[in-house]
Task: structure prediction
Amino acid sequence: MRGSKVPRRSLRLTVRDEPPIRFPLETRANRNNRKGRAERLHSGIDSRYASKPSTYPKSIGVGMNSEGSNIEYELDGSIATVRLNRPEKLNAFTFAMIDQIRDAVERAVADEGVIAIVITGTGRAFSAGLDAGDLARSTEGGAPPSARDTAPDEVPALFSYLLRVPKPVIAAVNGVTAGGGFVLAMMCDLRFASSDASFTTVFSKRGLIAEHGTAWLLPRIVGTSRALDLLWSSRRFDAA
Result:
């Protein structure tokens, strides 16, 4: 009715007593793990990236910069250069070379004086990918067993460890880059290409899927449409 008073409802706010937040006490194991991570970071090795050195038998492969090595390690001030040196085969990777590339990168990571890592090739190629002879032997079960103790969460793809290197990794692409060589350039943080550089994913021409994380990483670098073009067509393109 007009003029009648409508009783107001009272609003009561109730504050509940929340139990106190309790943090677990740090155990001795946690302290030791934290200390170990700090020591590895201080030495220049990211705790996620650290791995044991290669334990291949001495008869398999040779050391970097040795007479029979196809990998050269050079220091120019604070820049470490890892050079693929097999120009007569367009720097195609052998299994020994793949292991030596990682050894060279780990050496640069552990060196506190190195602030960046450059990967490049000798001659007219960056890399034509995996050596055809080694690829054939691997299909017949002739590939050497991996003796490297990798992190359990490391992506099982060629050169995927480069994604966790705590220093900039730059691909100086000097020429032909195909297949596994394309993967190596893609896994680097930054790519500079010369006027002689050319690229091809090559996988579809060999009846292969987009291997080694290419289907995941390439669209994030060049976009989905361009990545599909490069992966489906395997066409050759230059730096321009």
The mean pLDDT is 76. Residues 95-110 form the longest helix (16 residues). Residues 69-147+154-238 form a domain with the 2-enoyl-CoA Hydratase; Chain A, domain 1 fold (CATH 3.90.226.10). DSSP finds six helices and nine strands in the chain.
